[in-house]
Amino acid sequence: MLKKRLIPVLILRDGVVVRSVSFTHTNIIHWKPATAVDFFNKWAVDEIVLLDVSRTLDQREKFYEAIEGLSKQCFVPLTAGGWVTSVDEARALLRLGADKITVNTEAVRRPAFITECATVFGSQCVVVSIDVRRATNAWKVSINRGSEATGLHPVAWAQEAQRRGAGEIFLTSIDHEGLQQGYDLALMKAVAGAVDIPVIAFGGAFAWQHLADGLATGVEAVAAANVFHYTEHSTKKAKEFLRTAGIDVR
Amino acid sequence: MIAIVDYGMGNLKSVANAFEAIGSPARLVTRPEELREAAAIVVPGVGAFGDGMRNLRARGFVEALEEEVRRKGKPYLGICLGMQFLADVSFEHGEHAGLGWIRGAVKRLEPDDRRFKVPHMGWNDLRLIRDSALFADLPGEPVFYFVHSYHVEVAPEEAGAVTATCWHGADVTAAVQKEQIFGVQFHPEKSQQVGLHLLKNFVQSARLCMRTSSVE
């Protein structure tokens, strides 16, 4: 049977790993992303996601170097994203060693972009990343690193992304991100129940129980960033916890 | 030298990186004549079967593989698409002839239960059903990373070639072996320690193979 997946996320700004709280990125965690990956490699993570949240493209080369460096060291699938606005840019990331790319802002602005990527690289390669902010009484999709609200509802947008060829959904609650209170479970459940493709939950996990709670919503994978940086042997301990909770993990 | 056949399909660098990591650097080859110097040949690949075979053929690799693997007996490791090429035919988007080294057809995964999604993507346990040099010293139910929508349905008369399966709503052919020809549907280069171990086993069996042929 397929295992549920545990995915550490490295958030990079100008080439260094940063800590993220509700999409505000401040503390630098490790200067070199490779340092973090060395841990992950030893402790059985299932995949790695690498996101470039830089405000400008001035230091993009450093993100490229990070992808290339990681792909040489970590023999698990590597997903890279942030600033992917063209098929050429997606190809560049894949050539550097990424196995999948995430698309976000450009996909909302121009949904055909999802299909273009899926046609060239295959759906398994195309992860649509959806950032969600809770407005007064409803969820709304945000783009442009959370700075720009759209009228899209995450469920409807996830369904459209699937129809247009997305292979997976990387679903982030901006409100929960970095607050250490667990995932937005209602959001995860709503989206996972509405699409046939795998959903990866992100934003808010800071205790192993949060990971188990996340998986109980029907998502295929749980992702986290900060927790894995601050806990020694973290991914290994997380796996042990999940296994004890009766969840089938590697 | 271990040759990785570069026929323009998918990211071959991760396979090269994996061989590098186990201390057996492999060379990406773009010309069929380079296979002559190879001790063992790896054919990776992600993408559509039809495009893949067309690229192999257009670059002259089909004849070169026949010569080096089938006639000279060099070890072959097909990964994902490289395993599917071993079959007679594929029904992915039409009907396309394969290498035909193992009787069988490449067909779409069709699990009855909707909970089993296609593509089959993620980590799954192997059921080892026959000894294979590739699996030497692996844990009893090793877990490997898969990404695919099609698999090889091996013909009944050659069922013995199937060395491992996995479960995804139906039995999926995970690995095959016929003499020194190996195929794996999963991605050892993305399967962390067990994957690297399997590649080491392939290198080891290639070494044994060389030794035998030099004795002759």
Any chance you could write out the topology, listing elements then pairs?
The complex is a heterodimer of chains A (250) and B (216).
Chain A: E1 5-13, E2 16-21, E3 24-30, H1 33-42, E4 48-52, H2 60-73, E5 78-81, H3 87-95, E6 100-103, H4 105-109, H5 112-121, E7 126-134, E8 139-143, E9 148-149, H6 154-163, E10 168-173, H7 185-192, E11 199-202, H8 208-215, E12 221-224, H9 226-230, H10 234-244
Parallel strand pairs in A: 1-4, 1-12, 4-5, 5-6, 6-7, 7-10, 10-11, 11-12
Antiparallel strand pairs in A: 1-2, 2-3, 7-8, 8-9
Helix pairs in contact in A: 1-2, 8-10
Chain B: E1 2-5, H1 13-21, E2 26-29, E3 40-43, H2 49-58, H3 61-71, E4 76-79, H4 81-84, E5 89-90, E6 96-97, E7 104-108, E8 120-125, E9 127-128, E10 143-148, E11 150-154, E12 162-167, E13 171-178, E14 181-184, H5 192-215
Parallel strand pairs in B: 1-2, 1-3, 3-4, 4-14, 5-7
Antiparallel strand pairs in B: 5-6, 7-11, 8-10, 9-12, 12-13, 13-14
Overview of this protein structure:
The complex is a heterodimer of chains A (250) and B (216). Chain A has 250 residues and is of the alpha/beta class. Chain A contains ten helices and twelve strands. An eight-stranded parallel barrel of chain A has the order 1-4-5-6-7-10-11-12, surrounded by eight helices. Chain A starts with a strand and ends in a 6-residue tail after the last helix. An eight-stranded mixed β-sheet of chain B has the order 2-1-3-4-14-13-12-9. In chain B, strands 6-5-7-11 form a four-stranded mixed β-sheet, with helices on one face. A two-stranded antiparallel sheet of chain B has the order 8-10. By secondary structure, chain B is α/β, with parallel strands linked by helices. In chain B, a hairpin with a 5-residue loop joins strand 5 (89-90) and strand 6 (96-97). Chain B has helices at 13-21, 49-58, 61-71, 81-84, 192-215; strands at residues 2-5, 26-29, 40-43, 76-79, 89-90, 96-97, 104-108, 120-125, 127-128, 143-148, 150-154, 162-167, 171-178, 181-184. Classes of the chains: A alpha/beta (250), B alpha/beta (216). The A-B interface holds A 1-3, 5, 41, 44, 46, 71-73, 75-77, 94-95, 97, 99, 122-124, 167-168, 196-198, 220, 250 and B 11, 13-14, 17-18, 20-21, 46-47, 114, 116-117, 119-125, 143, 145, 147, 167-168, 189-193, 195-196.
